[in-house]
Amino acid sequence: MGLERDRLKGSMFRSMIYAAATLLNQKKEEIDFLNVYPVPDGDTGTNMALTLLAAAKEVERCGSESVGELATAAANGSLMGARGNSGVILSQLLRGFAQVMQDKHTATLADLARGLQQASAMAYKAVMRPVEGTMLTVARYAAEAGKQAARRDVDVITWLAAVLQEAKTGLAETTQMLPALAEAGVVDAGGQGIVTALSGAYSALVEEEVPVLMAVAPGEELESAPVVATMAGIGPLESLQFRYCTELIVKGNEILLGELRKELEPLGDSLLVVGDRKITKVHVHSDRPGQVLEICRQYGEMLEIQINNMAEQNRQASRRGELAGRNGQGHLPSSGSIKGSDTASRDAEKQMGIVAVTLGDGWRALFEGLGVDVVLNGGQTMNPSTEELVEAIERVPARHVIVLPNNKNVIFAAEQAAKVVEKTVSVIPTPGLPHGVAAAAVYDENLEFAEVVKRMKDAGQAVVSGEVTYAVRDTITDGIRISKQDFIGLQQGRVMVAGNDLISTTKELIRGLLAKRKAEIVSLFYGRDVIHAAARELLQQLRAEFPDPEWELYEGGQPLYYYLVAVE
Q1: Inside any domain, residue 219
Q2: Of 431, 460, 489, at which residue does a domain stop?
Q3: To which H or E segment does residue 273 belong?
Q4: Please, is 442 exposed, middle or buried when counting C-beta atoms within 10 Å of its C-beta (0-12, 13-18, 19+)?
């Protein structure tokens, strides 16, 4: 069934990817739960599962039985589908493995061992400051075991068993390597994801049959919600300059992205051509979708063709909006929004623009009010993929783009997205929404791009932030004993206080923040589970206790976090 004593064929590599993606998805919630801090937004398992699912889907599209071509497909799929830091690192592991497998129809044990070595090296290289006790460590243990096992007279199954066993050893040792893991009594979540994926791959070899790609449980949607950049306000149908949203994948041997982009450019707007010479994604708004397909056909095989009438979508959205308004639901859900029209032509292109990742209607309104061009829905529990970030960057009508990730787990994916677009992109590493708002507040498009970036970075770094949420399990973290369902206050991501009363916990956190620095402005952003009257009452109490700073209150609408605090 594709498996030989000392060699791996493409059919079994395909099965291994399918099985790895399936098992990782099945176990994603358990991995999410391993978050060091007992907050309800652990998403390492979810991010890794979605990333590997994207890799598996690309393998599914690949008609080749060559290990090298299938590995390249997996690497390409994971790159564009990568979510969060763990997903980006996973994509780098697959990319390193694919580099060694290139041009190999089958893989020997020596090839596989070198592939794991390069995978580990690529992942370490991708991280600015590698830390031991993380998924990097687990990947390194696995790579070393693969190197040692390849020197022995073993078969592929025995070789992978040795790799898996050493990965488990490395995972167990992560608890001793990082004090935070030891204190919380958990192993590294990303490392557990690596072990889970390897376990799935090993099961495919042992069973020697091709598993069905089922990366989600029955009843769940196969894919996450598509990225749809809708207009900030739904306007009249006449405002649509081009009616047909045309998307497809082009697969070929020598796709010239620049030439393809140049040919498609006159046919519409919102043009996106990203990928490499073998597989490219095309997105364009045009009144001539047939001509778009005809041009793309000259560059290779066309897959996943989708043509949607945006005028009809607009009418349906308007009807939903009217119904939502009558029901008092307010804003329409959307995965992304563009301030103003989505049909800005190249003639309207400006010097620079901004993409911001947010979560919550209040935050979206704040960023749009500060001049952000594209607001991408995401953040905690819903990290946007590299591909979604690429699309957002491409939709900004400017050649210079600033990206505000506004979440420490989105920064890495944003940096990867910046590398695959032709625009000049600067990612400002804002670790949270309050930092992003501070950065956006000093944006001045009349200055030079480099000066704007510096000002925004400085403004974001000047903020000290706090968060109030609840605990999902009993634990001891940062020396604080926490019970499940306790309210917990964090400063810059570190637990500072825990208690059973929301107001008292929030006040204690803010007291701690103000004790550490002199504040001129303190901003409170209340979440979707806090009513305005309660937030207003808390603000009055804080003003009475701390009369010196200027206090501001905003509706953020973020889930999971009752309050986000910014001290400037």
Answers
A1: no
A2: 460
A3: strand 268-275
A4: middle
Q: Which of 347, 365, 460, 331 is nearest to 403 (CA)?
A: 460
Query: DSSP labels for 361-426?
Result: HHHHHHHHHTT-SEEEE-BTTBPPBHHHHHHHHHHSSEEEEEEE--STTTHHHHHHHHHSSSSEEE
Q: Residue 422: CA atoms inside 13 Å, Cβ hemisphere, count?
A: 10
Average pLDDT over residues 123-136: 86
In 124-242, which ranges are E strands?
Answer: 229-231
Rounded Cα distance between 150 and 476, Å, is 42
Residue 474 is predicted with a pLDDT of 86
Helix then strand then coil, in percent of the chain rounded to 5, is 50, 20, 30
Alpha carbon distance 166, 94 (integer Å): 19
CA dihedral 125, 126, 127, 133 (to 10 degrees): -70
Amino acid 208 reads E
DSSP state at residue 487 = E
- Nearest residue to 439 (alpha-carbon basis) of 467, 468, 394, 406: 406
501 and 442 both lie in a single domain = no
Q: At 411, which CATH number? A: 3.40.50.510
Residues 40 and 95 reside in one and the same domain = yes
CA distance to 350, 510, 552, 558, 562, per residue, from 505 (Å): 46, 9, 19, 18, 11
Do 18 and 135 have their domain in common? yes
User: What is the C-alpha separation between 435 and 426, in angstroms, rounded?
Assistant: 16
At residue 381, the pLDDT reads: 60
pLDDT tens digits along 446-493: 899 999 999 999 999 999 999 999 888 888 887 888 888 899 999 987
Residues 422 and 470 reside in one and the same domain: no
> Residue 488: beta bridge partners?
469, 498
Q: Is the pTM of this model over 0.70?
A: no
In the block, tokens 């499940």 appear at: 484
pLDDT class of 118 with cuts at 50, 70, 90 = very high
Task: Tell me, yes or no, whether 350 lies in a domain.
Answer: yes
In a domain, 382, yes or no: yes
List all residues 6 or more positions away from 288 whose beta carbon is below 8 Å from its beta carbon.
267, 268
Residues 129 and 140 reside in one and the same domain? yes
Give me the pLDDT at residue 311, please: 62
Q: Which residues contact 443 (CB under 8 A, 6 or more apart)?
A: 354, 370, 371, 402, 452, 455, 456
Q: Phi and psi (nearest 5°) for 285?
A: -100, 125
Q: In whole angstroms, what is the distance from residue 190 CA to residue 200 CA?
A: 15
* Host domain of residue 509: 464-567
Domain boundary among 311, 331, 351: 331
Same domain membership, residue 448 and residue 472: no
Judge if 180 and 295 occupy the same domain.
no
Query: DSSP secondary-structure letter at 549?
Result: S
Environment class of 151 (CB within 10 Å of its CB; exposed 0-12, middle 13-18, buried 19+): exposed
